[in-house]
Amino acid sequence: MSGTTLTARIRQVQYFWSPRQTFADLFAKPWMEPAIPCVVLLVLLVAFAATVPNYASIYNAQTMGRSYAEFGFVAIAMGLSLISGGIDLSVGSIFALADFTALIALNIWGLPVPLVILLTVLTGGVLGAVNGFFIGVLRTRAFLSTLVTLIVYRAVFDLLTLQWSGQLAMASASSDAWDALGNDSVLGVPNAVWGLVIIAIGGHVLLSRSRLGWHLVAVGASRRSARHAGISIPGVLFATYVVTGMLTALGAVFFAARLASVGSQTGEGYEFQALAAVMIGGVSLSGGKGTIGRCLIGAGIIFVLGNGLVQFGYPGQVTNAVNGAILLLAIGVDVKWAKNRGKAIQKSYVNPTYLDYGPLPDAREGSGTPYAMNSRLRGAEAIALDQVEGPEDIILDREGRLYTGTRQGWILRFSGENFDNRELFARVGGRPLGLAFDKDDNLIVCAAGMGLYGVKPDGAVFKLTDQTNRNWFKLIDDSRLKLTDDLDIAPDGKIYFSEGSTRYDMLTWPVDGLEGRGSGRLVCYDPATDTTRTVVHNVRFCNGVCLTHDAKSILFCETFGLRLMRYWIDGPSKGRTEVVLDHLPGSPDNINRASDGGYWLALVAMRTPVYDVAMRMPGFRIRMIKQLPIDEWLFPGINNGCIVKLDATAQPIESYWDPGGESHPTLTSMREDRGYLYLGGLENNRIGRIKLNGFNPNWTGCESYWGRRPPPA
Q1: How far is residue 180's CA from residue 346's CA, in Å, rounded to a whole number?
Q2: Span between the terminal Cα atoms of the chain, in Å
Q3: 29-to-63, 477, 537, 612 alpha-carbon distances in Å
Q4: What is the pLDDT of residue 630?
Q5: Contact by Cβ (8 Å): 499, 521
């Protein structure tokens, strides 16, 4: 192996695995943020289990579980208030008053346990409603309002305990159900933990699946936007604080049932512990972001840390100091991470790799190669001049009418002798790219950002598929179709279509080329079973799909791999992928059938020696992306229109050029029909047409696939 080849191989391996991309993919996932505090919680549990005697015993686990569950209710309440864009500093005082209410109702008033629970929860709801009235209806600031109610509720609690403490101490009421609520277990799990689990599951469903939950998150994220969406902000905030009060009171029920006593320090400091817990769990102080699970993970960290310090013999002041430090850390992380998370992911998301395109074919004028530059397209006739924006693909139906998609998400149809009659055929949405007619004359459309759609002959739009099976070898969920761009249909009705990239969309797709890794794929949709599956993975911008004339394979383009590929769908090689044409002089886009048994291939951008060198220098491209604006990045030349004619074996014969792109730059597609070649381009304001000499003047694309339509009976 030569030194140059060895160096290239080393660089290829060096840039194949990308920690930067792993970081970007991980931190872009919603579950990654709570994963970090979850790991911290597990580390704390393991550390204390290894250092504290009997820490991992069943008895200690049950004891801790009861105390944690009581605090967990308060943490969920605090989390909901933060998600709504507010805060509830009165949860500790509400907890104390609810504990007092439960003990009075049971021991002094002699109420049955169900009524005790109901009365206590209602008390918490009423106390929360006071907060909700001031914050939601009167529009006062949540911090100041709940700070005041913290002081007022605590003062009321102190007065009540001073008056009733003697009677509570002498009360002798007992209840097996009440004792079981606080101290018994089911399957070894304390009843309080079961209650927390039930509430957590219900809260998660309500927050993520109900209208109230969606409204709550919307209000927390942006009250102005929520108001414009017709959401009742006072109603949502009022309901939120009622619920936070009830959840806090429910935690107090289990606390009262476990200890059966009330002390002056009941619930004291819970507001700051709960605030530290939910923030360290990942609930944002700015609102609109958080889950029940994050609240409980953060509550676990605060509780386990405090409990462990106590078991080590440290006084409560140390625990309070640690909680304060954690709260400061959580606030700092929340502010900085919320501000810079997007930047960190964006800067690490693009990860160029080493890519050697091989020898550059000679495309100079007069070179004698199939790619030799000429001016065959320069005099092309302009159809629909200034009447269409970005006709990326074009197609003709049996009647000779011309169809194309536009940047507005429309499908336009042109008819008449010179295609002078322009009509809006359908509004598909997204960005219509690849087009193909099925045997029933439905126009099948690849709509970037939406998936695969169809348009009936009367213009009615219907959806075929917008997702495929997920690739479990990737961190990101790539089941949703983001950038479907071309298609073709097999005789059995299966639709094979390409998706350029699973990482980039219609606005950022050129970046996929600079990265050079390949996240595109060839996908198959079967209308008979309504199933979609990916058949070829990791294509460097999969684009251009064409069923071969013998219907045994699918030709597809690897735009940023500069290759034409084949996927066998029938015969002894079924399921195999192979390279048909490599080292192209430009980026292949769409490919379509020709009347002579060959194919037409569009080259959307042309290689240059400088571009080839840059693709072999990933470090250079990383610095370019970081330091230069996107309009100064190095891309292939798009100022030349080029169509390559391929023979029946998909090998190049000749080419058609528009040097300088005077008439048709960025050519992305072409269709042969009735002796003419029609031209489309992603950035063009026209559809081109040239007369073909020596080609069948009666050949049409539709009949090539589906035969002549039988005459009416």
Answers
A1: 54
A2: 71
A3: 35, 9, 21, 34
A4: 78
A5: yes
pLDDT digits 0-9 by tens, 231-248: 999 999 999 999 999 999
- 3-state SS class at 101: helix
Helix axis angle, 292-311 relative to 58-83, nearest 10°? 130
Determine contact, residues 653/347, Cβ cutoff 8 Å. no
- The CATH fold assigned to 381-706 is Neuraminidase (2.120.10)
Instruction: Locate the domains of the chain by residue range.
Output: 67-261, 381-706
- Which position has the token pair 């951008």? 605
Cα separation of 569 and 548, whole Å? 10
Lowest pLDDT segment from 306-310, 314-318, 645-649: 314-318
Buried b (16+ CB within 10 A) or exposed e, 58-86: eebbbebbbbbbbbbbbbbbbbbbbbbbb
pLDDT in tens, 428-441: 999 999 999 999 99
CB atoms within 10 A of CB 510: 17
> What pTM was estimated for this model as a whole?
0.72
Q: How many Å separate Cα 334 from the centre of its chain? A: 22
DSSP codes joined into one string, 250-317? HHHHHHHHHH----TTTTTTHHHHHHHHHHHTT--TTSS---HHHHHHHHHHHHHHHHHHHHTT--HH
Neighbours of 692 (CB within 10 A): 20
The gap from C-alpha 190 to its chain's centroid, in whole angstroms, comes to 38
Q: Identify which has the larger pLDDT, 630 or 198.
A: 198
Q: Maximum Cα–Cα distance for the chain, whole Å?
A: 110
CB atoms within 10 A of CB 631: 6
Give yes or no for a contact between 319 and 306, defined as CB atoms under 8 angstroms apart. Answer: yes
